[in-house]
Amino acid sequence: MDAAKFIEHADFIEREPDEMVERSAAFLELMKRRRTVREFSDRPVPRAVIENAILTAGRAPSGANKQPWHFAVISDATLKHRLREQAEEEERAFYGGKASDDWLEDLVPFGTNEHKPFLEIAPWLIAVFKQSYDLDPTTGEKTKNYYVPESAGLAAGFLIAALHNAGLATLTHTPSPMGFLNRLCDRPKNEHAIMLVVAGYPAEKVMIPDIGKKPLEDFSSWH
């Protein structure tokens, strides 16, 4: 086993307390303007924006630095059409009896249904895969990954924040099951899709649900 190797963390920037408060408040205000939308414009978005956002996602922490994720980026119109067809097939099953009454009741405020036109209209779809294990490129043998759901979830969060910071709207879409994404994106058996991130400009005068977020005291405790 090789010995651990360390380098100096020369990139860390220490800030004065007042500046930290100011920067944290500014980032909070930025993220408070993030809202999920379900109506997108077909306006093009430069590929470089998406690449930078995915590179940002790749900076997320992960168990033993295994980075157990893959991002399959889709912009091809034919592939988006096929994806929409298969996603809507799963959604029809969901709304047609698969989902419990409680689940459907909880979705009422969002006005969702089995129709997903945004999957063809938005310029970019990003399928986020978790890698349950790695495959040695030489031998094909399995190698272990750690904290896979947590790691992939952190990367997806980084991705959404980066896209919002760049000036794009996003939607997380989770048809269930999502095995069809492996087939469409030609991903190996050790990968499992956890969500589709839809990214682009919002449609003009897009409407969003009139909902709020929990106050700090409802989701934090201080000891």
The assigned CATH architecture is 3-Layer(aba) Sandwich
- How much β-strand is present in the residues? 15-25%
Q: Helix/strand/pairing class, anyone?
A: alpha+beta
**CATH class membership:** Alpha Beta
Terminal Cα span: 40 Å
Q: Reading side by side through the largest sheet, how are the strands ordered?
A: 1-2-6-5
Count of DSSP strands: 6
Report the CATH superfamily. NADH Oxidase
Report helical residue fraction.
40-55%
Cα-based radius of gyration, to the nearest Å: 20 Å
CATH topology: NADH Oxidase
Mean pLDDT: 96
- Unreliable residue runs: none
Largest pleated sheet: 4 strands, antiparallel
Name the shape in a single word: globular
SSE string, helices as H and strands as E: HHEHHHEEEHEHEH
**What is the helix tally?**
8
Number of domains: 1
Map the helices and strands.
Elements: H1 17-32, H2 47-57, E1 69-74, H3 77-98, H4 101-107, H5 118-121, E2 124-131, E3 133-135, E4 142-144, H6 148-166, E5 169-173, H7 179-185, E6 191-200, H8 216-219
Antiparallel strand pairs: 1-2, 2-6, 3-4, 5-6
Helix pairs in contact: 2-6
Structure description:
This protein is α+β, with helices and mostly antiparallel strands and 223 residues long. The chain has a single domain, classed as 3-Layer(aba) Sandwich (NADH Oxidase), CATH 3.40.109.10. It has helices spanning 17-32, 47-57, 77-98, 101-107, 118-121, 148-166, 179-185, 216-219, and strands spanning 69-74, 124-131, 133-135, 142-144, 169-173, 191-200. Strand 3 (133-135) and strand 4 form a beta hairpin. 40% of the residues lie in helices and 16% in strands. It has a four-stranded antiparallel sheet, with helices on both faces. It has a two-stranded antiparallel ribbon with strand order 3-4. The mean pLDDT is 96.
